[in-house]
């Protein structure tokens, strides 16, 4: 008999070969009808797949039935919809070759290859019509297995050459492969799937893009068709409304319209140029953070943009980030050798000068030939220029520098620059430090994925006894920063190591377990709800990540606090304890903003470019009704600037309606409209960008109002679209 443990803790016995559907039917008819898949011992499986035994020790199989209310069920639905889409495409375009069709965070895609033509968005209505026919027929998804040799022959007979190649490249190591059949459509697939196509409540094709087979540029170019699906049409409508709202809020579009930032092809892709208005917002954010840090006992530091490669090899950043770093800067350690090498490359140094520089650098004019014990290499001055350059590269001692990928190794060197006592700890070092990563061009996206970015970085060095208190304080700082910016809808993720991932080599020891326990203890003490995620930790330690939900329902990882026992060990950091013996400090890494570029991009979209009064690059615009009020308008502007507000005067010879409209389009929070009556009474007509006309009030009252709103950092609701339930930013799933 098969023992099954249900979510309520009860254990029941079933015959061998029992399926989740049969378990559901035994519980109740309605559950059997609502179930779409199941989770057996942590793995998602088809509803009709026989339940396999648990571990060899005879433990019961833990079973959880999935319905449309479960997030995992939505992934299963979307993967099945990818099959439905592929089936519809093959009906409309005979000879299509299929690649992969995984789920994504908010939908699915399928990569296809079509001979003789390209699929375009104009084809979407026809594809969707065919998909609707398939879902209406509600044919089942049927799983079957074949030995790998038979599986290869099977897909070859179907003309699916990409699947054949995938079996030859990777899947041949498995003895048996699984397939899913739905009507005439058969696909090599790991699964799982919904019971039948009729479970799909609503779907939509979204876009199309190019992609390379297996992501390799030397392989076939395919077409990637994106779509999404839900159990209910209301959920689809809400999601499409969110997508449309996100399109309107796209920071790349608004950043250009509002002159906040630009990217120049001459400077380079992924390198942000902050324009004056954007720089004002960044400066406000930086000053806000710096003021708060001074209150909390942090010390400011500055570090260079580059460092010797040995620094990052010691820290581990060089091997870990090697594939996403700019090439190293390599130059001779000796100044004379560098001058000689530069002169040879430029062709502006003669033989006499070369001889002098060789002597200063201590470089012999010839060396013993490594291929012979008695011969020497060709004399330097008998070599060609290219040979001389090669000779110098062989004989000179070179230094290598790297554009820094992280600030922490630099802060570690500041800590190590002088002896430390336990009385000096905790030591909190903070910097707005710029770092560099060579992201692939296809991964760059406005301000949210760049090659150079500035982190509001800080590193705390503390004793073991201080860890939990300091970690809590950094968590509270992050909470304060996010709530001050209107980003109070968030959840916390405890990002742990993955014992199967080689980047966490050595993480199975007590040090990592203790670090994860420390974070867990702080989160529990703060009564912060959190989930745990294996494989999301930094390579040097676990962390608490803040996953923030913006006003239209999207989720972003922003602030992070990391606990690190590893880097102090790598660099041999010490402090003298109360026992007069050396001890190893613990490091805490924290960045509430994350990166200024990415944070700015998210803020632009969160506020739809309409920043609150305290953060807006232009807070108030004075709008004279006519030239008769020009002098008074200038007086009002002077009062605003004297009080420290960012204000301007619209003195154009336009009608007041046009001036108000333009200020609205430029998202100015407050407008002071002035005419002859206002000039006579020392008043202004106060106009709020969102609330509209608030009436005439004395100038002093208007100034006090904006001062209060600025001091209290008031926010106005900017969301205009209903958001669907939050979704995980998960990676691709269910791909063979």
UniProtKB/TrEMBL annotation:
Location (main, coarse): cytoplasm
Cofactor list: Zn(2+)
Catalysis: reaction(s): tRNA(Thr) + L-threonine + ATP = L-threonyl-tRNA(Thr) + AMP + diphosphate + H(+)
Cross-referenced PROSITE patterns: AA_TRNA_LIGASE_II, TGS
Cofactor binding remark: Binds 1 zinc ion per subunit.
Binding site for Zn(2+): 408, 459, 589
GO biological process: threonyl-tRNA aminoacylation
Localization per record: Cytoplasm
CC annotations in GO: cytoplasm
UniProt-listed CDD domains: TGS_ThrRS (cd01667), ThrRS_anticodon (cd00860), ThrRS_core (cd00771)
Residue stretches making up the Aminoacyl-transfer RNA synthetases class-II family profile domain: 250-612
Any GO molecular function: metal ion binding
Superkingdom of this protein's organism: Bacteria
Enzyme nomenclature, EC number: 6.1.1.3
Gene3D superfamilies referenced in this protein's UniProt entry, alphabetically: 3.10.20.30, 3.30.54.20, Anticodon-binding domain, Bira Bifunctional Protein, Domain 2, Threonyl-trna Synthetase, Chain A, domain 2
Residues covered by the TGS domain: 1-61
Keyword tRNA-binding included in the entry's annotation: yes
Keywords: Aminoacyl-tRNA synthetase, ATP-binding, Cytoplasm, Ligase, Metal-binding, Nucleotide-binding, Protein biosynthesis, RNA-binding, tRNA-binding, Zinc
Family: Belongs to the class-II aminoacyl-tRNA synthetase family.
NCBIfam families: thrS (TIGR00418)
Assembly behavior: Homodimer.
Protein name: Threonine--tRNA ligase
Gene expressing this chain: thrS
């Amino acid at each position: 008999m098969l023992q099954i443990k249900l979510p309520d803790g009860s254990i029941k016995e079933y015959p061998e070969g029992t399926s989740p559907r049969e378990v559901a039917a035994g519980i109740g008819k309605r559950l059997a009808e609502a179930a779409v898949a199941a989770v057996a011992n942590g793995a998602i499986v088809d509803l009709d797949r026989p339940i396999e035994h648990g571990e060899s020790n005879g433990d019961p199989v833990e079973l959880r039935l999935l319905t449309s209310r479960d997030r995992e069920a939505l992934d299963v639905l979307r993967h099945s919809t990818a099959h439905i889409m592929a089936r519809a495409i093959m009906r409309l375009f005979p000879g299509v070759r299929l690649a992969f069709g995984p789920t994504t965070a908010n939908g699915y895609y399928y990569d296809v290859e079509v001979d003789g033509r390209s699929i375009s968005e104009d084809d979407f209505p026809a594809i969707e019509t065919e998909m609707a026919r398939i879902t209406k027929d509600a044919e089942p998804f049927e799983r079957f297995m074949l030995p790998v040799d038979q599986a290869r022959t099977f897909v070859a007979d179907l003309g699916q050459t990409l699947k054949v190649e995938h079996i030859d490249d990777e899947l041949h190591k498995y003895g048996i492969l699984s397939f899913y059949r739905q009507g005439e459509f058969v696909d090599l697939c790991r699964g799982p799937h919904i019971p039948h196509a009729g479970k799909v409540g609503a779907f939509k094709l979204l876009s199309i893009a190019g992609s390379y087979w297996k992501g390799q540029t030397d392989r076939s170019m395919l077409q990637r068709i994106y779509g999404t699906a839900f159990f209910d049409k209301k959920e689809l409508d809400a999601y499409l409304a969110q997508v449309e709202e996100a399109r309107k809020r796209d920071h790349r579009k608004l950043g250009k319209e509002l002159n906040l930032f630009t990217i120049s092809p001459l400077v380079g892709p992924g390198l942000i140029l902050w324009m004056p208005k954007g720089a004002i917002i960044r400066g406000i954010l930086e000053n806000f953070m710096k003021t708060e840090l001074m209150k909390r006992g942090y010390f400011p530091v500055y570090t260079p943009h580059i460092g010797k490669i040995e620094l990052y090899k010691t820290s581990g950043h060089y091997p870990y980030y090697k594939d996403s770093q700019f090439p190293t800067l390599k130059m001779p350690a000796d100044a004379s050798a560098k001058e000689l090498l530069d002169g040879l490359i430029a062709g502006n140094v003669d033989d006499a000068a070369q001889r002098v520089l060789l002597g200063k650098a201590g470089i012999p004019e010839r060396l013993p030939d490594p291929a012979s014990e008695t011969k020497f290499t060709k004399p330097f001055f008998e070599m060609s220029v290219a040979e001389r350059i090669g000779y110098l590269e062989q004989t000179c001692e070179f230094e290598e520098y790297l554009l820094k990928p992280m600030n922490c190794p630099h802060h570690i060197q500041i800590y190590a620059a002088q002896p430390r006592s336990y009385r000096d700890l905790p030591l909190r070092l903070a910097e707005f430090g710029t770092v560099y990563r060579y992201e692939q061009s296809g991964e760059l996206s406005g301000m949210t994925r760049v090659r150079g970015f500035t982190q509001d970085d800080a590193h705390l060095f503390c004793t073991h006894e201080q860890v939990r208190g300091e970690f809590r304080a950094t968590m509270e700082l992050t909470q304060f920063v996010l709530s001050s910016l209107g980003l109070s809808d968030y959840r916390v993720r405890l990002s742990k190591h993955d014992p199967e991932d080689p980047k966490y080599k050595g993480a199975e020891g007590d040090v990592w377990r203790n670090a994860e326990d420390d974070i867990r203890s702080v989160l529990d003490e703060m009564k912060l709800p959190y989930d745990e995620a294996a494989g999301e930790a930094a390579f040097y330690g676990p962390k608490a990540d803040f996953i923030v939900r913006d006003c239209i329902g999207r989720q972003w990882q922003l602030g992070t606090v990391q606990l690190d026992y590893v880097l102090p060990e790598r660099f041999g950091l010490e402090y003298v304890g109360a026992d007069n013996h050396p001890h190893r400090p613990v490091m805490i890494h924290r960045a509430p903003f994350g990166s200024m570029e990415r944070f700015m991009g998210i803020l632009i979209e969160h506020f739809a470019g309409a920043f609150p009064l305290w953060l807006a690059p232009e807070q108030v615009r004075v709008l004279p009704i006519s030239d008769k009020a020009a002098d008074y308008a200038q007086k009002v502007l002077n009062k605003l600037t004297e009080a420290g507000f960012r204000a301007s005067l619209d003195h154009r010879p336009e009608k007041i309606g046009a001036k108000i409209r333009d200020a609205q389009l430029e998202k100015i929070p407050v407008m002071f409209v002035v005419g002859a009556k206002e000039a006579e009474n020392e008043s202004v007509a106060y106009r709020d960008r969102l609330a509209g006309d608030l009436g005439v009030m004395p100038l002093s009252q208007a100034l006090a109002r904006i001062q209060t709103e600025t001091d209290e950092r008031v926010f106005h609701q900017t969301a205009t679209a209903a958001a669907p339930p939050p979704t995980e930013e998960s990676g691709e799933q269910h791909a063979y």
